[in-house]
């Protein structure tokens, strides 16, 4: 405030949302707004209907939406079936390879259920080596999808098909040829594996698809209204691009100059930038 700011952007939330007089962000933003400073805040990620946060009526509340740009990777099975998944992996397979479900490559001390999620150390390199693995991801899971591709790579896997129960359209820059599919496509791939003596597959490098429709649409992970504290005041106020956003990256956090992230924390700065006089 002492630097004569016109705007404050808050890409953060307190969950669950507290009442206006006890919530830190609500109190701090009130002091800012009372001095003529607009506060723009993200609505938050991952939750049920009516779990939106940063609900104070004096804050501008931002949800995340998609753009018309999609990042996809093609999967071709040995029976010529072709499926499209989400991915930002620049890596592709030169030739088809044997495809198995992750439990088939489980390490001795892990159950088939645990190995199906490609947890760290859960895969046997002798069984996984040279193969494409089908890994699961639970809707409520907080495990890193990127790290799971590292687990498969370290076990000698040459590719990964990632079955995401939530199917949130988030693309990941995997470290091996990989693609994310929803439960419906995942079940079709597993059926092919279970009913074929020597199932094979090939995963192609990710590509950018322009003109994807419908767009914009609210991202699946973006928290939704209605306003749990004051239902007569609609929240979120607005949505902005927050799905698969490419931006500059701090050198203090790795060697990358750019990164691609998804979340309402990506959407919030879009609105702040547009409101800057």
UniProtKB/TrEMBL annotation:
Ranges for domain Peptidase S8/S53: 25-274
Location of the PA domain: 105-189
GO biological process: proteolysis
One protein family per Pfam: Peptidase_S8
Domain of life: Eukaryota
GO molecular function, one term: serine-type endopeptidase activity
Swiss-Prot/TrEMBL keywords: Glycoprotein, Hydrolase, Protease, Serine protease, Signal
Parts forming coiled coils: none
PANTHER family in the record: PROPROTEIN CONVERTASE SUBTILISIN/KEXIN (PTHR10795)
Protein family according to the UniProt entry: Belongs to the peptidase S8 family.
Record protein name field: Uncharacterized protein
Organism: Acer saccharum (Sugar maple)
């Amino acid at each position: 405030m002492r630097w004569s700011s016109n705007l404050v952007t808050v890409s953060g939330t307190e969950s669950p949302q507290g009442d206006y007089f006890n919530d830190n962000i609500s109190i701090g933003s009130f002091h800012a707004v009372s001095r003529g400073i607009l506060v723009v805040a993200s609505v938050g990620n991952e939750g049920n209907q009516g779990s939106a946060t940063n609900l104070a009526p004096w804050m501008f509340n931002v949800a995340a939406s998609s753009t018309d740009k999609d990042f996809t990777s093609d999967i071709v099975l040995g029976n010529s079936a072709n499926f499209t998944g989400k991915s930002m992996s620049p890596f592709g397979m030169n030739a088809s390879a044997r495809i198995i479900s992750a439990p088939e490559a489980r390490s001795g001390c892990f159950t088939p259920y645990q190995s199906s999620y490609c947890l760290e150390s859960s895969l046997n390199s002798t069984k996984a080596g040279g193969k494409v693995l089908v890994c699961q991801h639970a809707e409520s899971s907080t495990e890193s999808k990127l790290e799971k591709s590292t687990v498969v790579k370290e076990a000698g896997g040459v590719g990964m098909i990632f079955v995401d129960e939530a199917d949130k359209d988030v693309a990941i820059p995997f470290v091996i040829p990989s693609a994310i599919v929803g439960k419906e496509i995942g079940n079709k791939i597993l059926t092919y594996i279970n009913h074929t003596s020597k199932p094979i597959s090939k995963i192609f490098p990710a590509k950018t698809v322009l003109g994807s429709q419908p767009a914009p649409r609210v991202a699946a992970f973006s928290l939704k209204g209605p306003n749990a504290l004051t239902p007569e005041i609609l929240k979120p106020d607005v949505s902005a691009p927050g799905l698969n956003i490419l931006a500059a990256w701090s050198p203090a956090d790795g060697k990358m100059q750019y990164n691609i992230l998804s979340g309402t924390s990506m959407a919030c700065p879009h609105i702040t930038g547009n409101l800057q006089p």
